[in-house]
Each structure stands twice: as C-alpha cells, then as structure tokens.
C-alpha cells in the first residue's frame, strides 16, 4: 500500500494534487511520500521485533540526503557500497556505527575511511580483499570487524541482471571456500570475525530462494561454531521484491518471519539490507506529454522524462506502471511512452493503454527505487527536481541541477 491515490480522478500524493505539484515545481519531477516510507520501515521493524536485529537500508536504491535522514531518524542503519554512500549517510546524520560496507571493489582509501569512521562491519567479497583489509587495518592500528559475503549458488529467480547469488556472478566468496577463509580471518590479529552475509538478488517475488540460502548459511554457521569461530550476526541481504505489475511478493513480515524462524535457535542478530521494498512504491516520476505522434505501426506519447531520468525500462526492460495524472477513459489508445533522448531504447513503457492529450501529465509508479539514484546527465539533461510530500506539505529535497552545474568540473584546454 502507498499514498498515491486518485481523488475524483485526480492523482494525489498524500494530501497534495500531483498536477498542482507539477505546475509549481515543473516536470519531469520525482515525488516521494513520507507516509509510505514510514509505513515500509515500520513493516520491517514489526517483522523483526522478536529478534535482535539491524535494518541496514541499501543506500543505492535512493540516496537522497532527506531520505537517508528520515531512515536514520526511524532508527535504520545503512548498507553502503562506496565511500560516497558512506559520506552521504554521515552527511544525513546517520550513525556510522550502524553501517555495513558491501561491494566487490572497495579501494584501500575507501577501506581506510570506513575504518576511521568505526563502521559496524565490512562485508568481504574476495580472498584478496581479506589481505587488503587486514593490511589497511594494521597500518591504522585498528581491528576490522568483518563478515564474508558468501555466494551460496542459489537462484534468486529474478532478472539475470539483478541476480547476484549464482556461481557465475562476480559477487561474494564461493560457498565451498568460505569455511577456510573464515579460519584464515580468525587467525589474523587485524581482523575480527563478526558475521556471515549474503545477498542473492533483487526483486525476488518469492521467499523460497532466501530460505534456501539461509539453510546454506546455517550450515556454515554450525561448522564455524563447532570450530570455535564466533558469529554475532547473519545478514540476509536485501532483495525483497515489490509489485510493479501483477507480482505478488511476500510481505516483509512473511519474508522475514520465515527466515527468523529458521534462525530461532541461533544466538545471532539478524541484519537485513532492504532497498527496493523500502522506497520503490514511495515514489513516482511525473512527466508531461510533449507530443503525440501517430505512425503506421505505432502511436507514440513523447514525454519530457527520458532514460537519463529513469533508466530501468531501457536497461532491464522493466515494466513500470504508467498512469494518467488526470484519469479519464473517453479516448483510450495504445501508446509507446518514449522520452526525448536520442536512443531507440529511450522508453518508459511499450503498448500502454492511455487516455492522454499533449500537455497532460503521466506518472510512472514504483519509481522511488533505482530511479533518481541511477539518473545521469546523458544528452546534457540536468538532473531533475525531487520533492518529498508529508501530508499537505511539499519539501524540495533536491533542486533541479542548473546547466552550469552540469559542466562545472569540465575544463577547456
Ligand atoms: N545489499 C546488496 C549487497 C545489494 O547489492 C543490493 C542491491 C541490496 C542490498 C538491495 O537490494 P534490494 O532490496 O533493493 O533488492 N538497479 C536494479 C537493482 C540493482 C540491485 C543491486 N543491489 C534495478 O533497478 O532493478
């Protein structure tokens, strides 16, 4: 459930008319709902309430400072994958001691920065990284708390581009190697074993894959415990899917309680790293129809938002729901909704039944995750404005980038 609903055929974001917001702030425009974010966060907290836990919101899904600040105020920790994300968390008032750092390619300086901030845990993704973290920690006189991101070779049954827990993926340490690597870490004075981590994929619409992965992790946990290697947390990653079309993912409660039931007999805390499930349905992208074009085979609705603003359809062929801001049904036609960028793949949706005139507005739902955070300046299009709605108040949480800001760091020879 979210807080984008029609009132008398006009789309509202909480108590504010989307059309009025578009008029005031211009388009394309990202609009987020604070009440939806709070609802999602609460769902995760409720699901985890019977178990020691930490929610580490995956910053990459939406890294706007205002969103991070809200998450921090609600008690969330953070999953980061770069120094930039860690610095965002700190700038937004997040607690570095609730931050875990994942990613296959952490640089030495990123590792050093993370250790200086005393973050909670570094999730190690390769055997070479073990040595590098040990070296950097040693040189700083620190002991790095670490988990291995284990690749359990479990099929997340999602789009291949966002599947991460299979043998052929670059992520994590092969399950069969993990035990040996833990033994090595346990004997390293610069490292302290903290947890076991896995993240097998994104937009999972069933709980079965994560339960399979949890079984494998439990197996490893038991072997490590028998060996005297102490594990204080198990991190099941992110990956819970959302409804873009007719998917029926489990609720956070269903998804997590099945995992906690499996881990009930252990004494470890559970960490989760949700991104999409937290923010996707808390955001829409509003765009204006510039032109309609009718050709022999296709009708096009050419809109002012492009693949640079929202790349998911172009990159993964993702289906995202496109709705009219002013809903009516008197002249429904089938359109390809396409952007102004000079690429044939610049589309938001194919074959959509819409009733729309030039100058009217469309909204792409589910755009709160991996929308703004993946946007770019391609075709020299400035990053667009983002507003966060709280009841009947609109807060601009990112100004539209100016033309000069776009080329600020460029130099002519
Ligand atoms: N933890 C790690 C280590 C991750 O790599 C990810 C996502 C997450 C947590 C959060 O996963 P979530 O709960 O959001 O599924 N750009 C793609 C999604 C890429 C996900 C990358 N990793 C998309 O738009 O579908």
From TrEMBL:
Residues holding pyridoxal 5'-phosphate: 239, 273-276, 370
Q: Name one GO molecular function term.
A: pyridoxal phosphate binding
InterPro entries according to UniProt: Ala_racemase/Decarboxylase_C, DAP_deCOOHase_LysA, De-COase2_CS, De-COase2_N, De-COase2_pyr-phos_BS, Orn/DAP/Arg_de-COase, PLP-binding_barrel
**Gene3D superfamilies from the entry?**
Alanine racemase, Lyase, Ornithine Decarboxylase, Chain A, domain 1
Cofactors needed by this protein, per the record, are: pyridoxal 5'-phosphate
**EC number(s) per entry:** 4.1.1.20
What is the main EC category here?
Answer: lyase
In this UniProt entry, the residues modified to N6-(pyridoxal phosphate)lysine are: 60
Q: Where is the active site?
A: 342 (proton donor)
Q: Which residues bind substrate?
A: 276, 312, 316, 343, 370
Q: Which GO terms describe its biological process?
A: lysine biosynthetic process via diaminopimelate
Write out the entry's keywords from A to Z.
Amino-acid biosynthesis, Decarboxylase, Lyase, Lysine biosynthesis, Pyridoxal phosphate
Domain called Orn/DAP/Arg decarboxylase 2 N-terminal: residue spans: 35-280
Q: How does it assemble?
A: Homodimer.
Similarity section:
Belongs to the Orn/Lys/Arg decarboxylase class-II family. LysA subfamily.
Name of the protein described by the UniProt record: Diaminopimelate decarboxylase
Q: What is the lineage of its organism?
A: Bacteria, Pseudomonadati, Pseudomonadota, Gammaproteobacteria, Aeromonadales
């Amino acid at each position: 459930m979210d807080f984008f609903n029609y009132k008398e055929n006009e789309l509202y974001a909480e108590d504010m008319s989307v059309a009025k917001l578009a008029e005031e702030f211009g388009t394309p425009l990202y609009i987020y709902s604070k009440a939806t974010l709070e609802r999602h966060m609460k769902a995760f907290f409720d699901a985890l309430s019977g178990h020691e836990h930490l929610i580490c919101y995956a910053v990459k899904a939406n890294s706007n400072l205002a969103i991070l600040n809200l998450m921090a105020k609600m008690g969330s920790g953070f999953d980061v994958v770069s120094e930039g994300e860690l610095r965002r968390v700190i700038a937004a008032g997040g607690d570095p001691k609730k931050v875990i750092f994942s990613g296959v390619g952490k640089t030495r300086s990123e590792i050093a920065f993370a250790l200086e901030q005393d973050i909670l845990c570094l999730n190690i993704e390769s055997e070479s990284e073990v040595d590098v973290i040990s070296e950097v920690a040693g040189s700083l006189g620190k002991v790095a708390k670490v988990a291995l991101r284990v690749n359990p070779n479990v099929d997340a049954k999602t789009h291949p581009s966002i599947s991460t827990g299979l043998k052929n993926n670059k992520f994590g340490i092969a399950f069969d190697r993990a035990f040996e690597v833990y033994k090595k870490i346990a004997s390293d004075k610069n490292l302290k074993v903290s947890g076991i981590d896995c993240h097998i994929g994104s937009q999972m619409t069933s709980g079965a894959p994560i339960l399979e992965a949890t079984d494998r992790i439990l197996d490893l946990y038991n072997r490590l415990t028998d060996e005297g290697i102490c594990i204080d947390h198990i991190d099941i990653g992110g990956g819970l899917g959302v409804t873009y079309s007719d998917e029926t993912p489990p609720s956070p409660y269903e998804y997590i309680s099945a995992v906690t039931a499996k881990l009930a007999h252990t004494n470890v805390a559970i960490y989760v790293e949700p991104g999409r499930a937290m923010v996707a349905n808390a955001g829409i992208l509003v765009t204006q129809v510039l032109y309609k074009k009718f050709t022999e085979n296709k009708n096009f609705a050419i809109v002012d938002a492009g693949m640079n603003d929202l790349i998911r359809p172009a990159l993964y062929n993702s289906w995202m729901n496109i709705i009219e801001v002013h809903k009516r049904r008197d002249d429904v036609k089938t359109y390809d909704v396409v952007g102004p960028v000079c690429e044939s793949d610049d589309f938001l949706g194919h074959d959509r039944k819409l009733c729309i005139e030039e100058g009217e507005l469309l909204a792409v739902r589910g755009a709160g995750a991996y929308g703004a955070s993946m946007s770019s300046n391609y075709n020299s299009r400035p990053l667009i404005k983002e507003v966060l709605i709280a009841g009947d108040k609109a807060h601009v949480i990112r100004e539209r980038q100016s033309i000069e800001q776009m080329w600020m760091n460029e130099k002519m020879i």
